[in-house]
């Protein structure tokens, strides 16, 4: 537990000093939002219906980049080897990395979600509490799998394409769940989204546990 | 075993073809195209068997590092992808005359294409991940994660709108298997394709073993030449 906290603090302080990850992720998020809304070119009255898909497509692709960066950093100066010889359990490294990724993605969401409301003419304030729950569930589920597979993808050949290639098919149920839950929340609240939220909770729990158990097999040499 | 499996597979395959094309009556509403159903559904079952075998063999490999388990996982993934591709090819051939479209984002179709993509990415990881021993371990992790994803995919696609006939479990959307010969034909087709899949897996796993032996011999040979020089 303490080990996880150390990793978490280390990642955040690297981020705080460079602000490289956050700023690149924010700008990329903005760009993807612009690309997706312009590509849809919807009339103003049809725009709100696009919000769930635009939001989560942006989140997915921006998140892929953000999470991969966290492990590419560890490659420099062979830091990963240093991490592994440190007296920290691999499972704790996973938890630390996962929390750092969740924090990074949450900052990105905080920035992207108001922009979705702005670009697509939606008043998000009334549904904010329910929306925050869906955002958190989507964020955590994504990070649970992405943290595991980022550790894999930085250590194989063809690593730039490998992360999206491995991760996107596995994330489709999360995408279906978050888009469906967001649509229900925007239409009238969390009560309509029970099925979708169940899917998200199941996804989060299963892959957080699987990642926690399997991470040791990925990083050991 | 090495001779029995191919012979039994051939016999079962001929029996399945005879039943599907000569014995089973033509379905009244859908017509002749319904006959593709027997191989379509059987392929789907074989694909699932392959994917679950990948996970099982991967778990064994992570647990004790058995080379045989790793080779079985690779063989099962290839055979699973092959049969999943057959499902994705035979489905649209049926769907075009019946639904009027080649493809629709129906829950089962979506699920099949996601599963196919997961195991194609598994094969890509093995093929392009590099020659490192660690890549086998990464593939095993993906094999386990992939099978954990299957139930979540199944539940999540129900959030989509659907029109796929559930012939076996319910009679919605399809006409069901009214003639007893239809059920027999389905059963025999399933047995034939499972046998075919097992045979292919056996061949593929043996190919993997021979490949490893070749590589070992080559290394040995190179080491010897190195000594001479």
Structural description of this entry:
Chain A is mostly helical and 221 residues long. Chain A has one domain (2-219). Chain A has eight helices and no strands. Chain A has helices at residues 2-18, 20-40, 47-75, 79-85, 90-119, 128-153, 159-188, 194-219. Chain A is globular and about 55 Å long. Chain B is mainly alpha-helical and 229 residues long. Chain B has helices at residues 4-23, 37-64, 67-99, 107-128, 134-156, 180-228. The termini of chain B are far apart. Chains A and B meet through α6, α7 and α8 of A and α4 and α5 of B.
Cα shape of chain B: globular
Kindly provide the radius of gyration of chain B, computed on alpha-carbon positions and rounded to a whole number of angstroms: 21 Å
Amino- and carboxy-terminal Cα gap of chain A: 23 Å
Largest sheet of chain A: none
Mean pLDDT of chain A: 89
* Multimeric status of the protein: heterodimer
Question: H/E series of chain B, N to C?
Answer: HHHHHH
- Which consecutive residue ranges of chain B, at least 5 long each, have pLDDT under 50? 170-175
What is the overall pLDDT average of chain B? 89
Largest sheet of chain B: none
Which protein chains make the most extensive interface, counting residues with beta carbons within 8 Å of the other chain's beta carbons? A-B, 33 and 32 residues
End-to-end C-alpha gap of chain B: 46 Å
Q: Please identify the structural class of chain A as seen in this structure.
A: mainly alpha
Number of separate strands of chain A: 0
Strand content of chain A: under 5%
